[in-house]
Amino acid sequence: MEGNAAGLWKDWKLHVLVLAIVCVTELIGQHSISVGVGIILLLPMLYAVIIGIAVYFTPLVTKKQSEKAETLVYITLTLLIAKFGVQAGPALPQLIEAGPALILQEIGNLGTILIALPVAILLGLKRESIGMTHSIGREPNLALITDKFGLSSPEGRGVMSMYIFGTVFGSIFLGLISGFLATATPLHPYSFAMATGVGSGSMAAASLGPLVAAFPDMADTITAFSGASNLLTSVTGLYASIFIGLPLTEKLYKVLTKRKNYSEPEIEMESTIVITEEVKEESKTKVVK
Amino acid sequence: MLKNIQEWVLLFVIVSFMVIIGNWIGYDVMPLEALPGILALASISFLGLIIHRVIPYKGIPSIAYIGILAFILSMPAVPGSEKIVEWTGKVNLLAIATPILAYAGISIGRSWTDFAKLGWKTVIVGMFVLLGTFLGSAIVAEIILRMQGII
């Protein structure tokens, strides 16, 4: 990705626009809304992503600039990664102490399968649900599913729609719920800090922000844990999907659809394409047997 | 390579400037006070990109080099680490996150039409996907941290 940096700095219109967004959003500042027992934190970065999407639809931004912005996300993200790192160094003893939790929480990323797959099946989704729920569907997972099923397969359509959903809504959604969950649930902010390593830089930033803002006295340790978790996920994430996430999703899909087919067969009618796909699958397995 | 390096430096100058301004407006840190910190962060990032470029094995992402480099340079045993920690402490994390998400927003705009076409089922499942990974990790971390008595 660093390869496309050519001439990006020259696009002063884009940079001035982003600078303007930064100034406006920082001037608006941080606000919070109480929702029941928890707090939803509205941070400048949240306004920034929404304003960013909005200005794309004004004549101020061209499609080409929007493509350039992607590389700049990456460049700016490196500063955040460096910030993660320098917070982690002094926290080395805490990181070692919390090592087991940091490593094992990676397994928690599979929680997405356990929670989201049943929901998808309940809503009547078929094999798309495998692509959608085997992971949070970022670039490496898009590549994995494409490689295994092809992008035009139901699984491929599933991961693609999740990719689009996450791209547009991921940081906004996590930015809203992270502060709320950390204040409303009995779970410790440290645990949520470790959970921010979801496998996407901007989602990590969006979910970490409210934690740092809500617990300023723990900010250093929270950032260190978040940084370590992000680093771990960036290295292990794809392998966890290949060896655990995807096989587990397929297995659970089989178990859940078997039970469901007995109780609610009418849902089968929803998509004819998917049915033929399933029939093919079944006949294949029969031949093998 | 040389051309790329020039481009990187210029881009780092631009985004560092934004971070410093945001840091000033939002978190009341004077730009001069934050300057050494942002220079340190940008230099680390820049070095990480170069290391990634120079090493022929590309299996490790450049952000891993950046993270590890920053980590090593700020360990208490490393000479000068306390300076780096002190300087970078003046650069608020949230001030770095705002320009990231502003650029991200502009880049996301392109996907908006595709997003609008997604069915309501995808949106619901999508929220559970994000909630699942976030809450799942937090619960596992909580259990282990409690077992160890850290929290």
Outline the structure in words.
The complex is a heterodimer of chains A (about 290) and B (about 150). Helices cover about 75% and strands about 5% of the residues of chain A. Chain A is built from 13 helices and two strands; from the N terminus they run αββαααααααααααα. Chain A has a two-stranded antiparallel sheet with strand order 1-2. In chain A, strand 1 and strand 2 (about 40) form a beta hairpin. In chain A, helix 1 packs across helix 2 (about 45-55). The relative contact order of chain A is 0.13. Chain B is an all-alpha fold and about 150 residues long. Chain B has two domains: about 1-110, no CATH class; about 120-150. Chain B has helices at about 1-25, 30-55, 60-75, 80-90, 95-110, 110-115, 120-150. The termini of chain B are far apart. Chains A and B meet through helix 1, helix 2, helix 3, helix 5 and helix 6 of A and helix 1, helix 2, helix 3, helix 4 and helix 5 of B. Chain B: Keywords: Membrane, Transmembrane, Transmembrane helix. Chain B: This is DUF340 domain-containing protein.
> What are the segments of chain A in which pLDDT stays under 50 over at least 5 consecutive residues?
264-289
Could you state the order of secondary-structure elements of chain A as H and E? HEEHHHHHHHHHHHH
Helicity range of chain A: over 70%
Element order, helices and strands of chain B?
HHHHHHH
Give the C-alpha Rg of chain B. Answer: 20 Å
β-sheet strand percentage of chain B: under 5%
> What is the number of domains of chain B?
2
User: Could you estimate the helical fraction of the residues of chain B in percent?
Assistant: over 70%
Rg on CA atoms of chain A, Å: 21 Å
Look at the helices and sheets of chain A and give the structural class: mainly alpha
Characterize the main sheet of chain B: none
Q: How are the strands of the largest sheet of chain A arranged? A: 1-2
Spatial gap, N to C terminus of chain A: 46 Å
**Total number of helical segments of chain B?**
7
- Which protein chains make the most extensive interface, counting residues with beta carbons within 8 Å of the other chain's beta carbons? A-B, 132 and 100 residues
Q: Helix tally of chain A?
A: 13
Number of strands of chain B: 0
Oligomeric state of the chains? heterodimer
The residue-averaged pLDDT of chain B reads 94
Q: Unreliable segments of chain B (pLDDT under 50, ≥5 consecutive)?
A: none
Number of strands of chain A: 2
Keywords (chain B): Membrane, Transmembrane, Transmembrane helix
Transmembrane segments (chain B): 6-27, 34-54, 60-79, 91-112, 124-145
Protein name (chain B): DUF340 domain-containing protein
Keywords (chain A): Membrane, Transmembrane, Transmembrane helix
